[in-house]
Amino acid sequence: MQASTTENKNHTILTGDRPTGPLHLGHFVGSLRNRVKYQHQYQQYIMLADAQALTDNMDNPAKVHDNVLEVALDYLAVGIDPTKSTIFIQSQIPELTELTFYYLNLVSVARLERNPTIKQEIILRNFERDIPAGFLTYPVSQAADITAFKASLVPVGEDQIPMIEQTNEIVRRFNRLAKKDILVECQALVPEIGRLPGIDGKAKMSKSLGNTINLGASPAEIKAAVRNVYTDPLHLRVSDPGHLEDNVAFIYLDAFDEDKIGLQTMKDHYTRGGLGDSVVKARLEGILQDLLAPIRERREEYAKDRGQVLQMLKEGTQKAREIAAKTTDEVKAAIGLKHF
Ligand code: TRP
After folding, report:
1. Can you spell out the DSSP letters for 259-326?
2. What are the structural domain ranges in the chain?
3. Closest residue (by CA) to atom 5 of ligand 1?
């Protein structure tokens, strides 16, 4: 959905990332770009989901720890402004864990096992029968994240829609139990532009697949990545007609080239035959170098003063915690957990 500015000024957004690695162009297209826009239109909370990241990284907590700051640098580099968006660290808000513990009683194990996102991720991670209980229940933790801020809009990729459905089930159950609308139902905000494929043509750009272009990539890394971008395997000679479907060079140009007319001319020439991949890739490289240069420079600038970035995260976390604590008080009061 595309929400209009004036109509939805009062909406609250909660979104987040698992800090398990540097962010890349896929994140830029799928979420970061929109967050820069949303921060002017909505009350926006952006969470570094380090506790959730541990549900499948408990063997490597240092990775999660170190990437909290790296992802925060990516946020700042793309233009997320901590005076407009509240950026915070999930693990530093114990109320989120507390809410999770209560909500766990509103969900059955069978329902969690049926969650399509969880089912898919269990296969991807080869958990088989050894599913960490924390992993199986992370949708409940995600419901806690969303409801703690009474978020009505949750920008997520398509794969996260079952999480939103599960959250709303918890909200409805809780409110029925409380006989009062304490928690707020939310709506997924799915980006109009679909997922960006990896440079190898695989459906998803992903660190674990090694097919990304990172936001902090150096000019040489960008150049090498573009050289390896999957195009049309049937386009052997320059004179051969080329195909645009599944052609990653053109998919990226569609996402980043603002000169739509020039791009269309190039597409026509390519499909007719007589245009080499190297020309298409040169155009793509120029666009990506221009896009990423200021992001990389800002990132390097912020990285010089990590203390200042940590301070920003601390302030954001304090502000977020106040909101989460207020909701937690309401939740506890509604279920008989207020004694003094
Ligand atoms: N599960 C999300 C992901 O894997 C990250 C996340 C955690 C999140 N809590 C959230 C997203 C709450 C939106 C709202 O990307």
Report:
1. -HHHHHHHHHHHHHS---HHHHHHHHHHHHHHHHHHHHHHHHHHHTTHHHHHHHHHHHHHHHHHHHHH
2. 12-196+306-334, 219-300
3. 17
pTM: 0.93
Cα–Cα distance measured from residue 10 to residue 26, given in angstroms and rounded to the nearest whole number: 29
Residue 9 has pLDDT above 80, yes or no: no
Q: In what order do the strands lie in the sheet with 12-17?
A: 85-89, 43-48, 12-17, 153-155, 187-189
Does the CB atom of residue 140 touch ligand 1 within 6 A? no
Task: Report which protein residue has its CA nearest ligand 1's atom 14.
Answer: 15
φ and ψ at residue 192, rounded to 5 degrees? -65, -40
> Which CATH architecture describes the domain 219-300?
Orthogonal Bundle (1.10)
Whether domain 12-196+306-334 has CATH 3.40.50.620: yes
CA of 45 to the centre of ligand 1 (A): 12
**Residues 210-232 pLDDT 10s:** 999 999 999 999 999 999 999 99
CA 195 to ligand 1 center in whole angstroms: 16
DSSP type of residue 214: B
Q: Is 277 in the pocket of ligand 1 (CB under 6 A)?
A: no
